[in-house]
Write a structure and sequence with these properties.
Blueprint: E1 2-7, H1 27-30, H2 34-42, E2 51-55, H3 61-66, E3 72-75, H4 83-95, E4 100-105, H5 107-115, E5 122-126, H6 140-152, E6 158-166, E7 172-181, H7 201-212, E8 218-220, H8 224-232, E9 243-246, E10 249-252, H9 257-264, E11 270-273, E12 281-283, H10 292-297, E13 303-305, H11 308-312, E14 318-321, H12 326-332, E15 334-341, E16 344-352
């Protein structure tokens, strides 16, 4: 199997900074950071794959070299990796005969890969801020297992998967479809909200707000359900940001990881989270500000709010965590009571992605 491999070196760097993406960060910021580390974990499954082709420098060759994987460079991008560099790299990999193209990034990177318009299946290694699209493995470890299977197969069965990203107003939108390997380990796309799902959830939000209004320090994650909780606490709140409350009063809005750590370093905060529909992620998707060191300070279990319909539709009936640290993910594993209505809960299993 001839594999193509391309890395967006700035993917995911915006998450801990409280940004909603990483498109405006200089490539030098992420050259040795988040994306490279997650790419390296995915490459553990590559083994002695046939032929690997890649882009020069931080867009592939550096990571492959550090992992001891021999590869042929078929593309050289600009010093600062931008959308056009990813698109050009994918076209070069397809022209060189790659049968599968593995890319490391987020939803913005997936859109850049799709813009290449090549008839080659792809697999995304999740390294961005959001990853709403259905073209990603659930985690770098899952990508490693998929790569091991792909490398061993002579032919590959594929299906179409959604490429989803957020518009300027923060709403998720379907941008198109790409072919992906049909095998376990791939995440579903984020489910779009449906009217009527949240009728009982409003009662759960009101009850949670009354309970949490006296908590000395409360960290509330992003998403529509969490925005409703923030508003029930009497604050405007941010839809896509992580906000911090003290005794029911908003004390910090849309915080980055550094600011959140300073607030939590000398305290043990409560944590409130929503669930990403269709995927089941609690952590690691759009809330990377809540890092492993912050989670080490947090009182567990978190307060989790979601509609019963959203939970019932999750594949495998489980919630996922991908905090970027295996020990932290293992500590979060177990079961959590998700509040679905006033005095109503559903027990859900939490597993590392």
């Amino acid at each position: 199997m001839r594999l193509g491999f391309v890395v967006n070196p700035i993917a995911g760097l915006g998450g801990p900074l409280g940004l909603k993406g990483s498109d405006d960060l200089p490539a030098a910021v992420g050259a040795t950071g988040h994306a490279a580390a997650r790419a390296a974990r995915a490459l553990r499954g590559l083994g002695s794959a046939g032929t690997v082709m890649t882009s020069a420098g931080a867009m592939g060759a550096d990571v492959l070299g550090a992992a001891g994987v021999a590869a042929r460079v078929v593309h050289s991008g600009a010093l600062q990796s931008r959308a056009r560099d990813t698109t050009d790299a994918v076209r070069a990999l397809a022209a060189a005969g790659c049968e599968v193209i593995v890319f490391v990034g987020g939803d913005g990177t997936a859109r850049d890969v799709m813009a290449a318009a090549v008839p080659v299946p792809v697999l995304g290694v999740p390294a961005g801020v959001k990853m709403h699209s259905g073209v990603f493995a659930t985690s770098p470890a899952a990508a490693a297992a998929m790569l091991a299977d792909i490398a061993a197969q002579a032919t590959l069965t594929c299906v179409d998967a959604e490429v989803i990203d957020r518009d300027g107003d923060g709403s998720p939108r379907l941008f198109g479809m790409m072919r992906v390997p049909a095998m376990p380990g791939r995440q579903p796309a984020k489910a779009m909200a449906r009217q009527g799902d949240d009728a009982r959830l409003h009662g759960a939000i009101a009850a949670a707000a009354a309970e949490l209004a006296t908590v000395p320090l409360l960290v509330v994650g992003p998403g529509a359900t969490m925005l409703a909780l923030k508003q029930a606490l009497g604050a405007a709140g941010t839809l896509l940001g992580v906000d911090v409350f003290a005794d029911g009063t908003l004390v910090a809005a849309d915080v980055d990881e550094g600011s959140l750590w300073q607030l939590c370093a000398d305290a043990a905060p409560r944590l409130a989270l929503g669930v990403i529909g269709g995927q089941g992620f609690l952590l690691g998707r759009g809330n990377q500000q809540i890092s492993a060191r912050v989670l080490a300070q947090t009182l567990l279990p978190p307060v989790v709010l979601a509609s019963a319909a959203k939970l019932a539709a999750l594949p495998g009936g489980r919630l996922l965590v991908d905090a970027g640290d295996e020990a932290t993910d293992a500590r979060l594993a177990g079961h959590v009571a998700v509040r679905t209505g006033r005095r109503q809960t559903m027990m859900m299993r939490v597993t590392p992605a």
